[in-house]
């Protein structure tokens, strides 16, 4: 059972999202919060499998809460899925840099939101498809390279870790990667657990952004 915390300052959104997720046989709404401070407190107490956070909330924003819950030394660490009505770049970048595992617009189809919760709970990142190319282009072209650059990737990663990073960048799940490499899913997870700290990132999604940002892979063109 996937235990989810729903946090949004609008009552109708909280109720609607709770009803949507609670209707799924494998999802339980463990808690509901009306602001950022309450969301942070409940996440630490309940330790849900996924925290669904709104970006704009009174007291503390979803980005601030995500930064607390997703930090490498957070205890406990809670995977975050950000849901928002805003697709402004600074919000998207802020959520990803805070360590969020996913970012969706609230007008996404119900089945897309449910699938995203399952993906995040399974350790897989997700970004609204309408935002993906723009996000990658912005990271590559507008923002500077991180201290760990793509030129050092062969020094940082083992050949297998490099291979897994390339498959991640293609949007593959752990199961997809395991099938492609003919290994167990647990083996893929072990490689990821060792790889992420080497890249200085906190999530699969940040690893993919890192790969594009550091030109390990290239951003698909407009016709791709």
TrEMBL record:
Keywords: DNA-binding, Phosphoprotein, Transcription, Transcription regulation. SMART domains: HTH_LUXR, REC. The keyword Amino-acid biosynthesis does not apply. It comes from the Bacteria. GO terms for molecular function: DNA binding. The modification 4-aspartylphosphate is found at residue 54. InterPro entries: CheY-like_superfamily, NreC/VraR/RcsB-like_REC, Sig_transdc_resp-reg_C-effctor, Sig_transdc_resp-reg_receiver, Tscrpt_reg_LuxR_C, WalR-like. It holds the Pfam family Response_reg. Residues 3-121 form the Response regulatory domain. Residues 150-215 form the HTH luxR-type domain. The keyword Nucleotidyltransferase does not apply. Gene3D superfamilies: 3.40.50.2300. One of its GO terms (biological process) is phosphorelay signal transduction system. PANTHER family: TRANSCRIPTIONAL REGULATORY PROTEIN NARL-RELATED, TWO-COMPONENT RESPONSE REGULATOR. This is Two component transcriptional regulator, LuxR family. It comes from Pseudonocardia ammonioxydans.
């Amino acid at each position: 059972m996937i235990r989810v915390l729903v946090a949004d300052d609008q009552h109708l959104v909280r109720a609607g999202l709770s009803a949507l997720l609670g209707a799924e046989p494998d999802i339980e709404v463990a808690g509901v919060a009306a602001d950022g401070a309450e969301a942070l407190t409940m996440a630490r107490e309940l330790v849900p499998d996924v925290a669904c956070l709104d970006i704009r909330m009174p007291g503390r924003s979803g980005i601030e809460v995500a930064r607390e819950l997703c930090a490498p030394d957070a205890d406990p660490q809670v995977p975050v899925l950000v849901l928002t009505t805003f697709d402004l770049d600074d919000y998207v970048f802020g959520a990803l840099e805070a360590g969020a595992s996913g970012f969706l617009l609230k007008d996404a189809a119900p089945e897309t939101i449910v699938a995203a919760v399952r993906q995040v709970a399974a350790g897989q990142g997700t970004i609204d498809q309408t935002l993906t190319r723009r996000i990658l282009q912005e990271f590559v072209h507008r923002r500077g390279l991180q201290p760990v650059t793509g030129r050092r990737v062969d020094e940082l990663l083992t050949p297998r870790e490099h291979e897994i990073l390339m498959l991640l960048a293609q949007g593959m799940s752990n199961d997809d990667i395991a099938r492609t490499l003919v290994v167990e899913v647990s083996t893929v997870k072990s490689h990821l657990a060792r790889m992420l700290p080497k890249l200085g990132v906190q999530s699969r999604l940040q690893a993919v952004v890192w790969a594009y940002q550091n030109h390990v892979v290239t951003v698909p063109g407009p016709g791709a």
